[in-house]
Amino acid sequence: MRIDAHQHFWDPARGDYGWLTPAEGGLYRPFQPDALATQIYACGVNGTVLVQAAPTEAETDYLLAVARTTPWVLGVIGWIDFDAADVRAQIAARSEDMLFVGVRPMLQDMADRRWIVEDRHILSFAALANARITFDALIRPDQIDAIAELAEYHPNLSIVVDHAGKPAITANGPDRHWIDGIARLAARANVACKLSGLLSEAPRGADAGMLRPYVDVLHAAFGARRLLWGSDWPILTNVGDYTEWHATASSLIPPMDHDAVFGQNARRLYHLESRS
Fold this sequence. Notes:
Number of helices: 9
Shape: globular
Strand content: 5-15%
Mean pLDDT: 96
Distance between the termini: 8 Å
Strand order of the largest sheet: 1-2-3-4-5-6-7-8
Helix content: 25-40%
């Protein structure tokens, strides 16, 4: 079974996407399941994981409602307010919903780059681990060390790094800071990484040759069992086409590893068996 481990739906009229303004051009419009269905099926993708794009409980409820009426959406990575007094009660409540498979605070936008490892969050992450809810880390390279610390402190917490930590992709290849950071993350057995969002960090028109050194670093560090492919649709539409990105990613991963990277790992890490 092939799974797209990272895609979004949204409707700007809902009003809680702080980053999504008319300045975003083609992204500032509704993106709904009917616009994605034909594309995933054309690539042989059977199901997806739907990811939050707004830091609100209301958007998470919206995404769960979409998932309940879209059979090929296998799970939702939502948002929880880690600063709320009742955060552990929120985690317990969400864990009762089999479609709620992960949680993602929008760390990349936070002024405090080490917010996630503050002592006040320790019990919340223990609750996530106990509930078998995966933590998606939306970070930039300067936040890699914080996630490595989080993984060390909570070895039973499953962590997935979105978009490979958003390296700056150039013709010169990966920089040493990112390479070393990926190695520190991969040294923690409870950390996996998404092969997603790379085209958005690359110059327009980047091809497989420019991406290969970055994918090679990821594959060598995490291996076939801790890499999972995602489209990052519809953000992908700013820089590329769904079918082309699927084909490019497929060409960068050895065929023997396709089953794991393009499906099995997402099923395991997000506990999707009951839906897929």
